[in-house]
């Protein structure tokens, strides 16, 4: 079953706080793990992504932590801002030749209070 | 902005009708994928096109079909629309290769009544 489980469903954080979203996957054949941010009425926008042979990747306030043995990965948003309020999706990519399929988590609705 | 454009942005159709959604890929990208996103859920993979042929498909019935054109633009066609087809339809373009990101358009909101 190509499934990605995401938690929590919703998250409320104070401005300046740390937001943490977790994902777990089953299929060890997944070869790339992106995170997307989506605002209402818009398409998902790529935030940051990581390969399974890397344990951590940081870009600005966003950090992915990846635990290959546990088949888990998480997104940390440092110094969270009201403008970060959006829905966040983790995803896992399965590549086969020229075919690449993204399997998304169910999403986390983040609200950052001013 | 990602450079992936979709049209129309909103559409209302009647159950049983057919619909065509369009996508223009980001310049330099040769692969296009379509996703269905129901309200409050994550996008679900419909299919992918590369070199004008379908090379991957999710769990969607044959009434969902597509085309990719030589300029890498694409269409999603849905026949015999059902109420459950109401969703945001997303197009994503990418370049063949490992670890290349997919960039999404803003989506087409389809409402079936």
Please give a structural write-up.
The complex is a heterodimer of chains A (114) and B (113). Chain A has 114 residues and is an all-beta fold. Chain A contains no helices and eleven strands. Chain A is globular. With 113 residues, chain B is mostly beta strands. Chain B contains no helices and eleven strands. Chain B has strands at 5-7, 10-13, 19-24, 31-37, 44-50, 53-57, 64-68, 74-78, 87-94, 103-104, 108-112. In chain B, the strands form two sheets. In chain B, strands 2, 4, 5, 6, 9, 10 and 11 form a seven-stranded mixed beta sheet that branches. Chain B has a four-stranded antiparallel beta sheet with strand order 1-3-8-7, with no helix packed on it. In chain B, strand 5 and strand 6 form a beta hairpin. Chain B is globular, with a radius of gyration of 13 Å. Chain B starts with a strand and ends with a strand. Chains A and B meet through strand 5, strand 9 and strand 10 of A and strand 4, strand 5, strand 9 and strand 10 of B.
- Greatest interface by residues involved: A-B, 28 and 33 residues
What Rg of chain B, in angstroms, do the CA atoms define?
13 Å
Rounded to the nearest angstrom, the distance between the terminal CA atoms of chain A is 40 Å
CA-atom Rg of chain A in angstroms: 14 Å
Number of helices of chain A: 0
Quaternary status: heterodimer
Please outline the major beta sheet of chain A: 6 strands, mixed
The biggest sheet of chain B amounts to: 7 strands, mixed
Supply the helix-strand structural class of chain A.
Answer: mainly beta
Helix and strand sequence of chain B: EEEEEEEEEEE
Separation of termini of chain B? Answer: 31 Å
Structural class of chain B: mainly beta
Average pLDDT over all residues of chain A: 94
Low-pLDDT runs of chain B: none
Spans of chain A of 5+ residues with little confidence (pLDDT < 50)?
Answer: none
Task: Give the proportion of residues in helices of chain B.
Answer: under 10%
- Strand share of the residues of chain A? over 45%
How would you state the average pLDDT of chain B, rounded?
92
